[in-house]
Write a structure and sequence with these properties.
Rossmann fold, about 20% strand, globular, alpha/beta, 8 helices
């Protein structure tokens, strides 16, 4: 007997922006395993090709830079309406606000907030479908080295709540807010730095572990598949907001 997820997503067309690694790739894999027809999108052709080699063969890929409004408009105009759209990937800079160059801060805002806005504006989604953003726990638990990220995540969550009203009743809009997740993002720290970062997180979080991408992907599919969920921000943070 098929599972509930298989019934919900079988044959559904899903676009996962940022699907070439990390949370987005895990979401694409899980959706494909539930029978969805998944297209992953990213700015990097090389990352897309590498991800397709890891994902189920039913998955497809497309180039897309969500910070470019015209590119987003053209992309959605040239594709049939989707059943589900997920915006999982982004590029933002960390650092204390006094140290972060203004051009880097604006580029981060262009990528994550304006990227979400462009997708929310242009995405063609069938009636009953969903749009899901990924924010982050810093919207609730600010950090001095991530002032910008906290502000952007809060803005994305506010945008999703407003879009839930704006696009109702035909499209549901929600957000998943994770904490630190074991994705390739942290490879930039090197093996020792990554291990230290995760050890610090495990010691602080109530669940004493760091999230895996599939933990966040499961929440994304829950929101995408639940027909009564809209305007929600779901924390999947291991209790990070409480620590």
């Amino acid at each position: 007997m098929p599972s509930l997820s298989e019934k919900v997503f079988a044959g559904a067309r899903m676009l996962v922006v940022g699907g070439s690694s990390g949370i987005g790739e895990a979401t694409a894999r899980l959706a494909a395993e539930c029978g969805a027809q998944v297209t992953i999108a990213s700015r990097s052709a090389d990352k897309l090709a590498a991800a397709l080699a890891r994902l189920p063969p039913s998955c497809d890929a497309a180039m897309l830079d969500v910070s470019d409004d015209e590119a987003v408009r053209s992309f959605f105009a040239s594709h049939a309406a989707w059943d589900h759209v997920v915006l999982a990937g982004s590029a933002t800079r960390t650092g204390r606000i006094v140290d972060l160059p203004l051009d880097a801060a604006r580029a981060s805002m262009d990528n994550k907030f304006w990227g979400a806005y462009h997708v929310g504006h242009h995405a063609r989604i069938d009636d009953g479908g969903s749009l899901t953003f990924v924010s982050g726990v810093y919207s609730l638990r600010p950090q001095p080295y991530a002032v910008l990220q906290g502000a952007i995540n809060a803005a994305v969550e506010a945008l999703a709540r407003a879009l839930a009203l704006d696009r109702a009743p035909s499209v549901r809009v929600n957000t998943v807010s994770p904490s630190t997740t074991a994705t390739p993002l942290w490879d930039k720290l090197g093996d020792e730095g990554r291990a230290q970062k995760f050890a610090e997180m495990r010691s602080r979080l109530p669940l004493r572990r760091v999230a895996e991408p599939v933990d966040i992907a499961q929440a994304i599919l829950f929101l995408a598949g639940n027909r009564f969920a809209t305007g929600s921000t779901v924390l999947v943070d291991g209790g990070d907001a409480l620590a």
